[in-house]
Design the sequence.
């Protein structure tokens, strides 16, 4: 159930939604005690005026995008449409909002979420990071077929890289334990264990093409975003 809370800084009442409560619980972080206004104000302290403006604009859009009607969404310029649709799929993210949120999402949204997850991990720390951060486990837990998501968009080359990488990494995954808990030491150990490979480079090389397809796909299925 959504719950009303008094901000510990400005005394204003704000709502912590049920989803947000679940997310706090799932990620083992204490519930926030301040309203968005106060949190933002504390982040902005001492920041250059220009950075502040940019962040404010980003925040304004973040709040606005999910509320747009389909007609308003379709009228956005291309780059904004992409950002808006990605933001509008966040509510289906199984890592944050759980199994049900993802399973009940329209298939095009599921595909985009899976692709964004891979991009966020692999383009950042490679497939090693992807597996170290538990996405191999999420694939099973939430029944996410990462390769299939790319195939569904016609991105067969990347789908193949994902499948090959999975075969490559599977023998090492039993070395990952809950004890690692995201520590640098655990990550370094895992990194040393996995032989060098070129999956990350191959994946990154295809990013520009993939991103173009993703944008086109979103546009084609805009009615479910
Ligand atoms: Zn406040």
Sequence:
């Amino acid at each position: 159930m959504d719950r009303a809370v008094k901000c510990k800084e400005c005394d204003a009442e704000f709502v912590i939604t049920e989803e947000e409560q679940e997310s706090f619980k799932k990620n083992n972080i204490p519930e926030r005690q301040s309203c968005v206004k106060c949190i933002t104000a504390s982040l902005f302290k001492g920041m250059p005026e220009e950075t502040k403006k940019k962040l404010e604009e980003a925040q304004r859009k973040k709040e606005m995008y999910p509320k747009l009607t389909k007609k308003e969404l379709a009228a956005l310029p291309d780059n904004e449409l992409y950002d808006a649709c990605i933001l509008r799929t966040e509510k289906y993210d199984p890592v944050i909002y759980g199994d049900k949120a993802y399973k009940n999402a329209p298939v095009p949204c599921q595909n985009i979420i899976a692709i964004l997850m891979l991009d966020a991990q692999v383009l950042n720390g490679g497939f090693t990071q992807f597996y170290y951060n538990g996405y191999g486990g999420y694939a099973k837990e939430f029944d996410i077929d990462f390769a299939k998501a790319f195939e569904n968009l016609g991105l067969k080359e990347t789908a193949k890289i994902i499948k090959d990488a999975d075969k490559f990494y599977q023998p090492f995954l039993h070395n990952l334990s809950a004890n690692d808990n995201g520590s640098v030491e655990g990550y370094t150990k895992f990194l040393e264990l996995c032989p060098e490979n070129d999956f990350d480079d191959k994946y990154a090389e295809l990013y520009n093409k993939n991103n173009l397809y993703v944008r086109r796909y979103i546009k084609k299925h805009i009615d479910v975003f």
Notes: The first helix runs from residue 18 to 26. Residues 7, 9-10, 12, 34-35, 37-38 surround zinc ion (CB under 6 Å). The chain has a mean pLDDT of 91.
